[in-house]
Design goal:
The protein is an alpha/beta fold. It contains 16 helices and 11 strands. The C terminus is likely disordered. Bound molecules: pyridoxal-5'-phosphate (PLP). The site of pyridoxal-5'-phosphate (PLP) has 15 residues, from helix 6.
Length: 520
């Protein structure tokens, strides 16, 4: 009987599978599933085996028409044909992070156990919002959160949740900090919001500013704290800013310390910052999106000392744990803080489920439907183990130190702050100093266009610099030396061409800013 009191209609006999239904994964299609996914894996494996440079240098102008021409309303009905097509519009020109001369951003080569996890999690397709959509997945995620919190040393009341990335982790941490500030301040919320301040260093991540905007804070809500010569937040400057805010009737809702700045790979002095925060009663968030790899290092874990005093921590396993995107988490010292993102829906996670102790992760998350990304880390720990991950990360940190040493004795270059992690920020320094910015910009573009190597660029004190982010243990110091030669060659030729132009001589035909330069 249904609600209206009618007899339920008899269930129709199972229909004959149609062509469309043959695409669904179920008992009848497991062979096709195996074949199709294996074909995709084979295609990627073939590409990986054949990659001889990190990038082909393809431009959006060249690729966009090919992708635009594909008629999405005319399916190929053939995985092999679709893979052929995909090869021509994506795989052939992809940026390959596993290549030893990909040295640009915080992208890691991925470990195979995590790829196994990726394949499993998307096929089973658990959604981690509620127990009744994931069962064991929920408990596996919880174990990994506890494991991470333990490694950080957050204590017995810690908790957290996997997120889509450091940006989301930072947002959630700052949301909780804002709610705590609102809960403890006597002012009405509307009056308080414009007075809230977040203190962070200039080297902190821009997701802090973005979060502030999303959290309805004012334009001036993120206050920059001075850094030392190594771009680490100065604790005395932090004390000064906290006091200045208090004198001005402002409320510091959080201090964001960075454990591994994106550009410089330096770690703010966490113990001293934690002490300032404790004294002032301010929420300490540690953004360890990058530096979290040290949690599994057997030789460098001490660099994170003080992180255990944080109120919240961001970790990006997809940065320094060699995990595929996405894999990230936000952790809190006091699990009650997660209540600030708890909402109940009758259809999903009614409040009574809390009393029944049904573990619904949606109660702790900004997301609802959510991937079982934790499985990748789980299989990584179960197959290769944490020490092996730490070894990989230690290796790239060592390599960055070697690269820094190499650069610091090379008269062609100027190198900045010595990283505590695996970045190296440097620039080509021509005798014609006024051309330094343009020469480095050109070198980076020319290098990417040639595809021989990919390096990043950034600005230091208003000047254009280049950056290596080393996350691939396969990158040797010879690779780095070779890339430096390429940079110097591109930059040098550019400088010569510009100097010639400035002297009203004809520009050598071999160099133009727009054209990629190919160097030996
Ligand atoms: C990368 C990074 C982030 C942002 O993380 P996503 O995973 O890219 O969203 C935040 N903070 C720091 C220090 C980072 O390096």
């Amino acid at each position: 009987m249904n609600l209206q009191g009618h007899e339920a209609a008899p269930i129709p006999a199972r229909r004959r599978p149609t062509a469309a239904r043959a695409y669904l994964l179920n008992q009848a299609t497991v062979d096709d599933y195996r074949r199709t996914v294996t074909a995709g894996v084979d295609r990627v494996a073939g590409r990986v085996a054949g990659v001889d440079r990190p990038f082909t240098g393809v431009t959006p102008d060249r690729l966009a028409p090919a992708i635009g021409r594909i008629d999405l309303d005319r399916p190929l009905h053939d995985p092999a044909a679709a893979l052929d097509e995909l090869d021509s519009v994506y795989l052939r020109d992809a940026v390959w992070f596993h290549h030893p001369r990909y040295l640009a951003h915080l992208n890691c080569p991925v470990v195979i156990p995590a790829l196994l996890g990726e394949a499993v999690l998307s096929a089973v397709n658990s959604s981690l919002d509620t127990w009744d959509q994931s069962a064991g997945g929920t408990l596996i995620e919880r174990r990994l959160i506890d494991w991470t919190a333990d490694r950080i040393g957050l204590g017995p009341t810690a908790d957290g949740v996997f997120t889509s990335g450091g940006t989301q982790s930072n947002l959630q941490a700052l949301l909780m900090a804002r709610e705590e500030a609102c809960a403890t301040q006597p002012l009405p919320r509307a009056d308080l919001l414009p007075k809230l301040r977040i203190l962070a260093s200039e080297a902190g991540h821009f997701s802090v500013q973005k979060s502030a905007k999303l959290l309805g804070l004012g334009r001036d809500s993120v206050v920059t704290v001075e850094t030392d010569a190594d771009r680490r937040m100065r604790p005395e400057a932090l004390a000064r800013e906290i006091e200045r805010c208090q004198r001005a009737g402002l409320v510091v809702m959080a201090v964001v310390a960075t454990a591994g700045t994106t550009d410089f790979g330096t770690i703010d002095p966490l113990p001293a910052i934690a002490e300032q925060c404790r004294a002032a009663g301010v929420w300490l968030h540690v953004d360890a999106a990058y530096g979290c790899g040290l949690l599994v290092s057997r030789t460098r874990r001490h660099l994170l000392d003080g992180i255990e005093q944080a109120d919240s921590v961001t970790v990006d396993y997809h940065k320094s744990f060699f995990q595929p995107v996405s894999s990230s988490a936000v952790l809190v010292r006091d699990r009650r803080m997660l209540r600030h993102v708890t909402y109940h829906a009758d259809y999903l996670n009614p409040a009574r489920m809390v009393e029944q102790r049904i573990p619904n992760q949606v109660d702790k998350s900004l997301q609802t439907t959510r991937r079982f990304d934790a499985l990748k880390l789980w299989l990584t720990l179960r197959i290769m183990g944490a020490d092996a991950l730490g070894e990989l990360f230690d290796e790239v940190v060592d390599r960055a130190a070697d690269a820094w040493a190499l650069l610091s004795t090379d008269p062609r270059f100027e190198v900045v702050t010595r990283s505590q992690l695996s970045t190296v920020v440097f620039r080509y320094l021509p005798a014609e100093r006024h051309l330094a910015d343009d020469a480095n910009l050109h070198a980076r573009e020319a290098l990417a266009a040639s595809g021989a190597a990919v390096v990043a660029g950034t600005k230091v004190d208003g000047r254009h610099f280049l950056k290596f982010t080393l996350l691939n243990p396969e990158t040797t110091i010879d690779d780095i030396a070779h890339v430096l030669d390429l940079v110097a060659a591109h930059a040098g030729r550019y400088v010569r061409a510009r100097t010639a132009a400035e002297m009203a001589l004809p520009v050598p035909a071999e160099v133009s800013v727009a054209e990629p330069c190919h160097v030996g």
